[in-house]
Amino acid sequence: MKRSRFTEEQIIAILREQETGAKTADVCRTHGISGATFYKWK
Fold this sequence. Notes:
It is a single chain. This protein is mainly α. Helix content is 64%, strand content 0%. The protein has helices spanning 8-19, 24-31, 35-41. The two termini are 20 Å apart.
């Protein structure tokens, strides 16, 4: 299985950042991930 660029802690922090009110597109652009990856994590 391919190793992830992000640790579990980083993924959780990114998801929480969006939950606090930031737009999903902005969060994805900031961290260099696609929208599909974001929703897969969610």
